[in-house]
Amino acid sequence: MAKVSVLDMTGKVVGDMELSDQVFGVEVNEHLVHLAVVQQLANNRQGTQSAKTRNEVSGGGKKPWRQKGTGHARQGSIRAAQWKGGGIIFAPKPRDYSFKMNRKEKQAALKSALTAKVAGEKFVVIDKIALPEIKTKAMASFLSAVKAEKALVILSSVDDTVIASARNIPTVKTTQVGTLNVYDLLKYETVVADQDAVKAIEEVYA
């Protein structure tokens, strides 16, 4: 089992914690990690873009000029794509970009991302993350003390004070164990989690 130091909110080491190899010590599967990121981005796409083809634009009931003798290239309709206001070739239409991944594939991708963070020493465990009041400066000081300015903060439960304190820091995002995803794990340089959150991750994904 991998062992990591447990810090308090001032950055002081207060103990250590063993991490389950079933979650934090798996073989990294880069293909599944990539697939999970692509799936999340695809599922987030609205797919509402739309443009008109030549069959849908107005006008163009007759030839703009006769076939021969004008010196111009032949034209059949002002609805053709080369005309201003004409239709779009292969026009985008509303569609659903989403696709599914198997549950086991999603879990394997998440475990791979967590394992990579631990192996790269970018997984910071805090004994307890709590703030007495909503204060962005206090949250920034905490993250600076544990050397995690660009961080994904994983909470064991919803803490409105911590969430609100981190909301105005552009390089920080808070999440819970139930909404943890591969994209966020890769986007943020460091993962910060309290001990209860780590235990919950092991229970859910082991």
Give me some keywords for this one.
206 residues; Ribosomal Protein L4, Chain: A; 16% strand
Describe this structure in words.
With 206 residues, the chain is of the alpha/beta class. The protein has helices at residues 21-24, 30-44, 103-119, 136-145, 160-166, 182-187, 195-205; strands at 2-7, 13-19, 123-126, 151-155, 172-176, 190-194. It folds into two domains: 2-45 and 97-205, Ribosomal Protein L4, Chain: A, CATH 3.40.1370.10; 47-96, no CATH class. The chain has a six-stranded mixed sheet, with helices on both faces. The protein is elongated.
TL;DR of this structure?
By secondary structure, the chain is an alpha/beta fold. The protein has helices at 21-24, 30-44, 103-119, 136-145, 160-166, 182-187, 195-205, and strands spanning 2-7, 13-19, 123-126, 151-155, 172-176, 190-194. It has a six-stranded mixed beta sheet, sandwiched between helices.
What is the helix content?
Answer: 25-40%
CATH superfamily of the largest domain, called what? Ribosomal protein L4/L1
Shape: elongated
Sheet/helix structural class: alpha/beta
With strands numbered from the N-terminus, the spatial order across the biggest sheet is 2-1-3-6-4-5
Name of the CATH architecture of the largest domain: 3-Layer(aba) Sandwich
Count helical runs.
7
Quote the CATH topology of the largest domain.
Answer: Ribosomal Protein L4, Chain: A
CATH domain class name of the largest domain: Alpha Beta
Could you spell the SSE succession in H and E letters?
EEHHHEHEHEHEH
Number of strands: 6
Distance between termini? 13 Å
